[in-house]
Amino acid sequence: MIVKPRIRGFICTTAHPQGCAASVHEQIDYVQSQPKLDKPLKNVMVLGCSGGFGLASRINAAFSGGAATLGVSFEREASGNRTATAGFYNNIAFDEAARAAGLTAHTIDGDAFSDEIKAQVIATLKEHMGPLDLLVYS
Fold first, then answer.
1. DSSP letter string over 63-84?
2. Which residue has the higher pLDDT, 15 or 78?
């Protein structure tokens, strides 16, 4: 798909996967250039992990503290001639970078308050991570 900007008012309603990945990698590079966390965390869950403070918190926990992370966000995949949301692409870029660095990263896409997603979160924590050291609600 060729991504062309669609502007509604002052908001761009399209996202470019490579641009989102570049932004995530830029944030990771910055975090890695800083001193490591004094007290690294083992397991971190971020609700609202796909952008802003949530994404920044997840990047810092993983790439400065070596934490295993579980992110939950409500994003939309690409369909037809519409791109996915920026957060959808950010999550993919984060997961790929974390795994390439040997870090545990799981992302669940859906409504964090629904029974289905709550069950997925619990199952993921039990199977892959364990008790949380930090919960970020962004």
1. HHH--EEEEEE-----BTTBPP
2. 78
